[in-house]
Design goal:
Length: 339
Amino acid sequence: MPAKIILSGATGFIAQHIVKELLAKNYTVVSTVRSIAKGDHLLQLFGSSPKLSYEIVEDVAKPGAFDQVLESNPDATIFIHTASPFHFKTDDVAKDLLTPAVEGTKNALSAIQKYGKNIKRVVITSSYAAVSTASEQNDPKRVFTEKDWNQVTWDEAVSNAFMGYRASKTFAERAAWDFIKENDSQFILTTINPSFVFGPQYADVKENLNTSSEVINAITKLNRDDKIPPFKGGWVDVRDVAKAHVAAFEKPEAEHQRLLMNTGLFTEQTIVDLVRAKFPQLDIPQGTPGSDVETLAGLAQIDNSKTKEILGWEFIGFEQSVSDSIQQILDARKSTANM
Ligand code: NDP
């Protein structure tokens, strides 16, 4: 019989794609969401599937946040933890980013340790932010792999929201690996470490999207004379990231691994050049076409060949990922305008 899986943060961009993957494979999914309204909406998005239910975990940072969920689902065998804040809108990094990321992870693991005696596999959505140190991003000789750790300090973490988010993922993932060592846990941990995640929403294309999707959305909203917001880094498609969360517990080769999910590098110009070639109806600024090549040559490289070998499929390419995102955004705007 397909396993019962607990999935935290199921309303999120990545998590909704994970729900889709899990239901397609006939798993039973107990999701955690922050309110009844959000839970009901989630059920509706998945056609009230009898395999999907929800429990309320209003704030993952609260002590004992996951105890009741684990206590009432003793037959669950897999736990996937995605819930964590991903935004830069805070002046209090410790309270709004570091605490929920780290305490949320520890609370999930403590509840599993106490009540989840049948949980065999735990998958945590960490990040490429936990792999790469910010000050090394502009060193083209640096190659980051699954073995690397962000060396961010607490003082750097609380200096601004960008560093705070990167540190929140680093400290939370470290806390997870430390937890299983210190508690001699019965379950096996795998982390998923994605770079910037692009690709379409599962549903609900709102005016403003989740942090990583908003990078693309913001570019589609530009007028010809606007300044293009600068971005650079690695990217991967959400559908590959969702599939990796499932492979993480299905594949024995993924046991105890950090799966570094990255397909390529991009700058804002890479997106702009694609938009102008494929969506000429959007009158966005042109920037300096092709100038991303030089910027990308100055960036640290990412070698995730180990992860790709474990997963064994070809990741979705940039053109498809970004085009699918933009087409979905344009379709949603058209249907709102027609309402
Ligand atoms: P979303 O913002 O779409 O999802 C975040 C989820 O976490 C939401 O369900 C949110 O609930 C929930 N959440 C946040 N804070 C709390 C809290 N204190 N208590 C309970 N639930 C909480 O982001 P993504 O889907 O992009 O991110 C999901 C995970 O993937 C995160 O761990 C993120 O760090 C990681 N990640 C994302 C990347 C990306 O580029 N998107 C890259 C690398 C890692 P609600 O919406 O109700 O607030």
